[in-house]
Specification:
With about 230 residues, the chain is α+β, with helices and mostly antiparallel strands. The chain has helices at about 5-45, 55-65, 75-90, 95-110, 110-130, 160-165, 205-210; strands at about 140-145, 150-155, 175-180, 185-190, 195-200. The protein has a domain at about 140-210. It has a five-stranded antiparallel β-sheet with strand order 4-3-2-1-5.
Length: about 230
């Protein structure tokens, strides 16, 4: 004989399943929109105070539509930043712009602390955004923290300078960045290329895998075992 509580359990189970399914759909969209909105607001809060008061978006709107006009203007700072960056990049590519950049860098080199900070940020920016040499565009498995265990890493540039000179000669070495969950820190390893297993996984897929602690895997691909 069927107890009267079974339909209620079925209804509750269905509601619970629908709620969890809704979370799977709503949470990624909601978090993405929230992070985008927050990032735009952060850029606006950083850039808009640098614009003279007479050219502030609110002042322009009030001059055109009247003092009582009010429109949502979030994102103006981002647009200003993009336009300003494009103009600076266009100027820096010219002869006069390159000369001004060199003079400014000479001034920066005379300030001890600022020189170190600027040099580090410049080298990182040139490495990440360089169009001639691509970094972090491949993923791999690297032995870490000991032989027999493997960690997902991002392939960086080849060793240079003193690092390349001090590393054992006679075999190819590559730099691998191993990020730690939840992607707030990591370490740079110089590993023999023969010990690295290159993956078809994209860098953003590897980042999701690391951030989720191994719970979010990319789509399954037909890869031969031991490749």
């Amino acid at each position: 004989m069927t107890t009267p509580t079974q339909p209620k359990r079925g209804l509750l189970a269905g509601l619970r399943a629908s709620f969890l399914t809704g979370l799977v759909v709503v949470l990624p969209v909601g978090l993405t929109l929230w992070l985008t909105w927050a990032a735009i607001g952060w850029l606006d809060g950083w850039i808009l105070p640098l614009i003279p008061a007479a050219y502030q978006p609110e002042a322009i709107v009030h001059r055109i539509f009247g003092p009582e006009a009010a429109f949502p203007l979030r994102g103006v700072g981002v647009a200003v930043f993009l336009v300003f960056t494009v103009i600076i990049g266009w100027m820096a590519r010219g002869l006069i712009g390159r000369s001004l950049v060199r003079q400014a860098e000479r001034l920066v080199d005379r300030v001890p602390v600022v020189r170190s900070v600027y040099g580090g940020f410049k080298q990182i920016a040139e490495t990440v955004f360089s169009q001639k040499e691509r970094s972090f565009d491949r993923t791999c498995l690297v032995p870490f923290p000991r032989e027999g265990t493997w960690a997902v890493g991002l392939v960086a540039t080849k060793p240079r300078g003193e690092i390349a000179a001090r590393l054992p000669s006679g075999e190819e070495m590559i730099a691998v960045f191993v990020a730690l969950t939840p992607l707030t820190s990591g370490m740079l390893l110089y590993v023999p290329a023969r010990d690295v297993i290159f993956l078809d996984m994209k860098p953003d897929e590897a980042a999701k895998l690391i951030v989720s602690g191994g719970m979010v895997y990319p789509a399954i691909k037909d890869v031969p075992v031991g490749k």
